[in-house]
């Protein structure tokens, strides 16, 4: 007759179980790294995208109304001259935002406005900035401009 082997109780984890746990831990670590992204970076990108949209909106309103619109910075934020008060917001969403160099942009009413650019920075990270630019014909676009 055949011999019966008594099954031994298993001790420890199998290789497959260890690999599954390591995979879960790696994915959790990657998720935490994405969640803990620097707030100053996020705020700068958000403000740059917002200002780009505001420029394009002011440019469209300028063309529709046939009036010249000029954007410039103020002590409290910025202002769109040529539009009725309150037509577009005039404050930054985040404190510490500022503009380097050119602090004025002409936004129409002509379809071609000339090449213009604004460099936006956050005082929490002054070495990092975003450039909002147009060649005059194309819409304004955001570009990262890290400074050494």
Mean pLDDT: 87
Low-confidence segments, given as residue ranges, are: none
CATH architecture: 3-Layer(bab) Sandwich
Side-by-side strand order of the widest sheet: 3-5-6-7
- Largest sheet entry: 4 strands, antiparallel
Name of the CATH first level? Alpha Beta
What is the element string, with H for helices and E for strands? Answer: HHEEEEEEE
CATH fold field value: minor pseudopilin epsh fold
Distance between the termini: 82 Å
Q: State the secondary-structure class.
A: alpha+beta
What is the strand content? 15-25%
Q: How do the strands and helices of this protein lay out in sequence?
A:
Elements: H1 15-35, H2 39-65, E1 70-73, E2 78-81, E3 97-100, E4 104-106, E5 116-122, E6 125-134, E7 141-144
Antiparallel strand pairs: 1-2, 1-4, 3-5, 5-6, 6-7
Describe this entry's structure for a reader.
The protein has 148 residues and is α+β, with helices and mostly antiparallel strands. The protein has a single domain, classed as minor pseudopilin epsh domain (minor pseudopilin epsh fold), CATH 3.55.40. The protein contains 2 helices and 7 strands, in the order H-H-E-E-E-E-E-E-E. It has helices at residues 15-35, 39-65, and strands spanning 70-73, 78-81, 97-100, 104-106, 116-122, 125-134, 141-144. The strands form 2 sheets. Strands 3-5-6-7 form a 4-stranded antiparallel beta sheet, with helices on one face. It has a 3-stranded antiparallel beta sheet with strand order 2-1-4, with no helix packed on it. The chain is elongated, with a radius of gyration of 27 Å. The mean pLDDT is 87.
């Amino acid at each position: 007759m055949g011999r019966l082997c008594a099954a031994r109780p298993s001790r420890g984890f199998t290789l497959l179980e260890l690999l599954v746990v390591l995979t879960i831990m790696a994915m959790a670590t990657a998720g935490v790294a994405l969640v803990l992204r620097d707030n100053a970076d996020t705020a700068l990108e958000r403000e740059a995208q917002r200002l780009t949209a505001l420029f394009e909106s002011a440019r469209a309103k300028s063309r529709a109304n046939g009036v010249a619109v000029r954007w410039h910075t103020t002590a409290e934020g910025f202002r769109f001259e040529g539009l009725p008060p309150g037509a577009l917001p005039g404050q930054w969403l985040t404190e510490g935002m500022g503009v380097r160099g050119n602090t004025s942009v002409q936004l129409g009413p002509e379809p071609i406005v000339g090449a213009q650019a604004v460099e936006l920075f956050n005082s929490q990270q002054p070495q990092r900035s975003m450039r909002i630019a147009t060649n005059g014909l194309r819409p304004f676009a955001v570009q990262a401009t890290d400074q050494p």
